[in-house]
Amino acid sequence: MALFDTLAPDAGRMLVHAALAAIVGLPALSATAAFAGPASGQFQVLPNGQAFVRAAVTNSRHCRRDGECSLRFQVGQSTGAVVYAHGDVEGVKPCGRAMFDAAWNIQDGTVIEARGLHRDLAGFHRIDLCAASDAFLRRAP
User: Fold this and answer.
1) How far is 101 from 133, CA to CA, in rounded Å?
2) Structural domain boundaries of the chain?
3) Is 55 helix (H, G, I), strand (E, B) or coil?
4) What CATH number matches the domain at 31-139, 3.40.50, 3.60.10, 3.30.1380, 2.40.50?
5) For residue range 79-124, what is the model confidence (pLDDT) as tens digits?
6) Of 5, 4, 13, residue with least CA distance to 123
7) Beta strand 124-128 pairing with 78-85
8) Which UniProt keywords apply (predicted)?
9) What are 15-72's pLDDT values in tens digits?
10) Which of 23, 68, 87, 127 is most buried when burial is the number of CB atoms within 10 A of its CB?
11) How many CB atoms are closer than 10 A to CB 58?
12) Is the pLDDT of residue 8 over 70?
């Protein structure tokens, strides 16, 4: 019997997320604040190297402690983060102040729409709002 067969689905997902977080340098999520809401919404990787997401999010404000600020999401089996600040990382293009303020003020459970540069990190989808000139973030209508 595999380890994941003995765990509740959320526990298995949390183990995978914690391992990915350690690999890519993101803070791990707690079991109670892992994902903002139901695993529904829309996630699409676009042909131009960007991705679009429409989902409920959890705001991870770790950039205030030299980490990365992001809006965490889950859509079906796809999990990821919409990154809006890189902390104090040198050589990384910062997001504009307006983008940062808009993202910082998003409350957990809010449904957002966002598009930015996509990176697939072993199944964890990273959408970077700072790296794409035509990136956007808005509350879903």
Assistant:
1) 17
2) 31-139
3) strand
4) 2.40.50
5) 999 999 887 666 566 688 888 889 999 999 999 999 999 999 999 9
6) 13
7) parallel
8) Signal
9) 444 444 444 444 444 333 333 444 468 999 999 999 999 999 999 988 877 678 999 9
10) 127
11) 21
12) no
Token pair of 3, please?
């380890």
Place of tokens 């600020």: 69
Task: Identify whether the C-beta of residue 75 lies closer than 8 Å to the C-beta of residue 41.
Answer: yes
CA dihedral 81, 96, 87, 105 (to 10 degrees): -60
**SS3 readout for 57-123:** EEEEEHHHHCCCEEEEEEECCEEEEEEEECCCCCCCCCCCHHHHHHHHCCCCCCEEEEEEEEEEECC
State CA 46 to chain mean position distance. 17
